[in-house]
Amino acid sequence: MVDHVEPGDGREIATRLASRLEEPLGVFAAPGRVNLIGEHTDYNAGLCLPIALPHATYTAVARRADDRITVASAQQDDRFEAALGEVSPGAVDGWAAYVAGVAWALREAGHELPGMDLVVDGRVPLGSGLSSSAALLCSAALAMCAAAGVDPDRRELVTATMRAESEVAGAPTGGLDQTAALLGEAGQALLIDFRDHTTRSVPWRPADAGLELLVVDTRASHAHSDGGYGSRREECETAARRLGVASLREADHDDLGRLDDGVLRRRVRHVVTEVARVSATVDALAGDDWRRVGELFTASHASMRDDFEISCAELDVVVETALGHGALGARMTGGGFGGSAIALVPTDRTEDVAGRVADAFADRGWGAPGLLPAPASPGARRVG
Ligand code: ADP
Ligand code: MG
């Protein structure tokens, strides 16, 4: 069975959410994202190419007369409340740290915030590698800025939401997710260069070529997913130090021979080849060469599976099944060890591929995967 995960009707979600506040000031949406290619490259000053999903997180806000912040989410049982001045790194636990962290980071950046009531409802699956965390952070950031009557540059909001996630929620982040949520555009992928944090829109309209991007949420999450991200980051830093470069973006193929540690050599090879594959994907898209885009996706998956070692059985099964039934290319996406995979599939084959993936999961006794429609969608915005 294929379990379709729909983005929902944004207007309806916004109206329902606003009705939970007495004097709502507005409702703000920020999307989840799926990275097309360029994995674990952000913290290596590399390149990546995400699109924003139609699935978003919605935050409604009302001002309060006092200096308190309250947050409730339809996805959580507990409600958070504190004085704004009490919120700081180490002071908030759990999911509310993402929202409270944004308030802290905006205040750190010099913005004066009023007391606020915030209510949240999300349509991005949590913990599936589609960045529900950035969707939550960025919708909250827009809501708080509206309550404060300020309109900072989106790049400033990228910095604030990154600080909130790493310093208050305690989850290290390279910036891909927040940048995609805040700067994504309908019909466009976002080429992000983490050397200087510049971005460029790259048209992404597979439907024009008779193709569809399938996003498959394996709903698997392996125990080492937290530690795995940190250890890969450390390995990259160690390798850069040994090579005498500021980041692995400065490394190239010739440097591989200078590393005698086989593990570090494989990690560097992933980063170096992955950055090259992002550039090659942008070139292929410019030439409308979708077959090449597919090949690059599949090569990226092999690199993550064999060199970076962040794939898992569920992700490999999605990729192999999709490739075996007509996908032009497929790869895991996100941090790894579970989460989601993408496949570029001729539109008339999408149902067959989705069904085959679901069957492959059922045959192995795994739960049904989720299937998300994924046209490139708008970034964070006011919706009510
Ligand atoms: P991902 O970003 O890939 O979905 P993360 O582990 O980075 O996975 O973020 C998931 C966490 O973000 C959740 O465990 C929860 O703490 C928080 N979160 C995301 N969306 C919501 C939401 N709608 N309501 C409350 N908390 C949320
Ligand atoms: Mg996240």
Any key phrases for this structure?
Ribosomal Protein S5, domain 2; binds adenosine-5'-diphosphate; single chain; 384 residues; alpha+beta; globular; 8-stranded mixed β-sheet
Word description of this protein:
This protein is α+β, with helices and mostly antiparallel strands and 384 residues long. The chain has eleven helices and 13 strands. Helix 3 packs across helix 4, helix 8 (262-286) runs antiparallel to helix 9 (290-306) and helix 10 packs across helix 11. The chain is globular and about 60 Å long. The mean pLDDT is 96. The site of adenosine-5'-diphosphate has 18 residues, from strand 6 and helix 3.
Topology:
Layout: E1 3-4, H1 10-18, E2 26-37, E3 47-63, E4 68-73, E5 80-83, H2 96-108, E6 116-122, H3 132-148, H4 154-168, H5 176-183, E7 188-193, E8 198-203, E9 211-221, H6 225-243, H7 253-256, H8 262-286, H9 290-306, H10 313-324, E10 329-333, E11 338-346, H11 350-363, E12 370-373, E13 381-382
Parallel strand pairs: 1-12, 4-6
Antiparallel strand pairs: 2-3, 2-13, 3-6, 3-7, 4-5, 7-8, 9-11, 9-12, 10-11
Helix pairs in contact: 2-3, 2-4, 3-4, 3-5, 4-5, 6-8, 8-9, 10-11
The protein binds adenosine-5'-diphosphate (ADP) and magnesium ion.
